[in-house]
User: Fold these one by one.
Assistant:
Number 1:
Amino acid sequence: MLNTLFYGSDQLLSDKWNDWMMNSESSPCAVCGNPGCVDTGMRPTSPYKQGYKFALFQCVSCQSMNTQPSPSDADLSKYYDSGEYYSTKEATQGGVRKLGWLDRLRRYARRCCVKYYWGTQPQTMSTLDHAIATFGKNRFGWPPDSLTGSRMLDVGCGDGTFIQEANEVGWDAIGLETSSVAVANAKKLGIQVVQGELTDDCFESQSFDVIRIWSVLEHVRDPIATLNKAHNLLRPGGWLVVQVPNAKSTIAKLLGERWSGWDVPVHLTHFNKKSLELAATSTGFDMATVHNASTGTLSSSIAYGGSSAGRIIVVFVDKLIDAMGQGDCIVLFARRPLQ
């Protein structure tokens, strides 16, 4: 199915690619607007269109990269609504979680992390659950230390699993998602999810204490407009939590074109610490902290990473990489100023 999903047929995609290659012209940087983007020479293969490669251009100023040729919005919508994208796989099952033992363990670990780190009040947890939460912190995420408030927006929420878990520990959380499939199934589960993008006028200004943009900013056409809208929707003092793949991570450098974090062509912009901080500060946020954290791109980049044994080994390798401060993703905490 995915072989014809993006452009309808092999011939149509081939024609689009060939036309672009003959008239190649890099787009301006989506982060800083600099027109000077140069071809890196890297041609990662799309996991969605077998055999097709896409080019990575790098900004000479902020060093972020962009994917060329860039798919149209209609092409991306076809894919996100296919039900085959990882964040909507559970949603397409209509709420029935047909997961293997390792996926069930992963879900339990994430639930422990949400309960321990995101709870609005101290949570009663067993010693084992506490240990699981601590171990899984980098993979599943955590909030800023001084987080306050109760209203949260989770952007790109998929089937709304995080929203469900956050609401269980005291949040009034709502989701925003572009996939109609994910939205429909989230609603079947009683999870409040609005269909749209952050730049749409879905919510009133200053209506959230926290906006979580997890594995989403790299997908959007205009990350600066997205962060400007987040700034508008946050109350003064509200927190922005962003996670993106780190294009300058050790794993990305070692694996090159084989790194799964490129995820072309659905990842449109490829950030590094410098460019992500620039995006936040240029849209009016006060920077708090930036962290490296591995979320598993290594397991999907190597041959044995999909097996149960391989995934377990990668978890421990990721912990070692994180201890060295070289994780495959970037987690940024920033705040809308009080004044």
Number 2:
Amino acid sequence: MGQVFAKIRKIFSRNKSNCLKQTILNHSVFLKAFLLFSQTFQNYRKTSIIRKYEKYPIKGMWKMDNQLTKELKEKYTIVFHDLNLLEQAFTHSSYVNEHRNLHLSDNERLEFLGDAVLELMVSQYLYRLYPDLPEGKLTKMRAAIVREDSLSKFAKECHFDQHVMLGKGEENSGGRTRPALLCDLFEAFLGALYLDQGFETAHAFIEQVIFPKVKAGAFSHEMDHKTKLQEVLQKSGDVFIEYRLIKEEGPAHERIFWIEVYVDDQLIGTGQGKSKKLAEQAAAENALAALEE
């Protein structure tokens, strides 16, 4: 900027007048100086903005996009029309909080949508695959397919865990391998795909990733852990089994529940889930595992 002002002083010095006022009123001289300053300031401003954003990992986002879009195209023939949706699906709230100046959106809203889309698709598939299965068993099988640990495994199989953008704190605490985070990531991707290309493309993705495992019987053995626990505990006589809600955390659309299961007031297992029913099932499953040890 110092060189710019030196040039401006040189322009003004060409005017032989000793009166600064007369120099400024000389339109051609003043306009030439002003244009030079304006052009230089704009170049300086652009350079400053570029330098400012180079401090933040924008390159990492573009790198993620290139790698991820390539995998999606090669493995699932998916090409996003709106890459902003794809980027949002892989942007965790921790990353947004640490990069507020980038004005990014996290994937929580997409997760909310993807959760509903996934449940509808799985429900429809199970309804058609098992025409004679009663509602209760269909519900249990659907719960097994869309629960946290199942979806986190699907996310890993799709290599989604390698591309999600996390804040430093979340990354250092093992967030990239956390089942709840990966479950939400999978649902967010499905929500983004649904918005970008509609129900049919989203369904084709699920048909490739989830339905083959269902058809192969990966979830048909799924049992009602609460019923099994009751059967095991009551072999020696009647007992009083109680499931107690000990805490719940998170926003309304992403609530997590913690449940403890007691038999005759003795704690035998704990569990958590995105609903009270799922948390009770998890607590019963953990209690059964403890009893088998």
Number 3:
Amino acid sequence: MTDEPPAITARELTKAFDGEPVVDGIDLTVEQGSVYGFLGPNGAGKTTTMRMLTTLTAPTSGDAAILDTSITDRDGVRSHVGYLPEEPPVFDELTGREQLRYFAQLRDLPPEPTADRIETWLDRFDLTDDADRRLDDYSKGMRQKIGLIQALLHEPEVVFLDEPTSGLDPRAARTVINAINALTDNGQTVFLSTHILSVVEELADSVGVLYEGELVAEGAPDELTAAAEAGADSTLEDVFLSVTTESSTATTAVADSNDGEVAGEPDAAATER
């Protein structure tokens, strides 16, 4: 056994908008070298959680750390993480290769080995022939590939991926899945948010299900499917549907017991993933 810190920890992590919690006191521990599958319906708080863990959004309360570095230390966390949001942050007027070189300069990466790494990733994602085209001519899938290379270029210890296979054809999606496997083989940690449950079943060492800002189920995929036991062929889809339906039913029952009290609309909170 080693004394290595967890890759990710969160304690009572909360984010509220206009008094309405979008993420409501979640606790997480993700070990180094693992894939954590983060599931939940739209509006559950997944993207807000990832933005807090990557220091892009400050929590309302609670705390979290990346490799024992508190998310209040933005520069410290930044050195450990790579992040692919659902919409990759790229500049349309740049070519694919220029975008990656620009990002490398922002990260102050050494030019020669980084240039080699860029060419390796471009080749791996079948982008070499298109690398000198402007990004505004790229398809959604091609832009997604550039965003993923950008998130991995500095070889971060912890990688946050928000829908990394979005817009990809099956061959490209398989390349991404293989790349994620290679990351964990290299000791890196992946926090993976996706709606494609088969990807989570294939890759994840542990899974958390977020519903209305609360972590309603967590564990290894086989443990969760066993707990949801709907028969021998129980899947993560069964788990997902079960825990979100149960939570929704419980919430409705509580609301019905409030003697007709009308809840206010959550405004900004409702738009958060």
Number 4:
Amino acid sequence: MKPLKKFGQNFLTDRYYLEKVVEAFAPKPGDKILEIGAGKGAITEQILRSLEVERNVKEHHERMAEPVAHENLKAQGRGKEFSTISGGEPVTLSKNLSVVEIDTRAIELLKEKFPGLKIFEGDFMQLSLCEILSRGDGSDEKLRVIGNIPFHLTSPIVFRLLNEREIVRDAGLILQYEVAKRITATPGNKDYGILSVVLSVYATLKFHFKIPASVFFPKPKVDSAFLSIVFDKDTAGISDHKIFRNVVRTAFNQRRKTLRNALASIIERLPDGSKLPVDLKKRAEQLTPEEFVSLSNSITEFGSK
């Protein structure tokens, strides 16, 4: 299947990095997993193999703890859906694994390669994540997301996941190396920006490893990286999420200016004498995420008077 530029397709083909990606993602039986842009199914296959190993280990421990009758052992494989993939080895499909794919050619390939796999056909940005959750095993587990995402859709996808954090537990994403550096940058760093501040307030971020361009087909012009985003932060301290994001975005849109000048359009609407909790002579890149929260909370408070 020839990769299409309009879909931003660059398939990860190296077995070593496929294994590293899934090992870092660490899927467990019972996890509700959604893969964005499954393509030819390389990551899908690795997830299934990882889940099979986890399942076998769990069943082994259970058998060691409590002897199972011979007839029960014989029946363990009944009622399971199997898929014959690379090497002709059958791997059990997981009812909690779903994929979304927009390329009709890839969809047909996935159906042939993984009979019974839950495939959502279309654009991830238009997909109902609640529907995916409802098609799982009925538990109230949040969704785990993984994907080798198109470079040009990184920000829309990341902010979609952020906005759906009530039902998304975490995401493991292959994205452009420079973007991964920006997301995980710290104050004072030239890469520190909107993504760094906003995501670090809502999630725990981890840069796992760099992935060279040479292990993708076609070979992109830049390297990639694997990044995890875990939506585990308590955001009750943010008075108004919309104002918080607007303050961060406005401050960094003119990052060379002082905060007093960059945020002039916001500050001038506040009542006279409003005292803000940060030094407005600083630039946006000098403020910590916590200081941005404090600043936006004060703006929210004074703006409501």
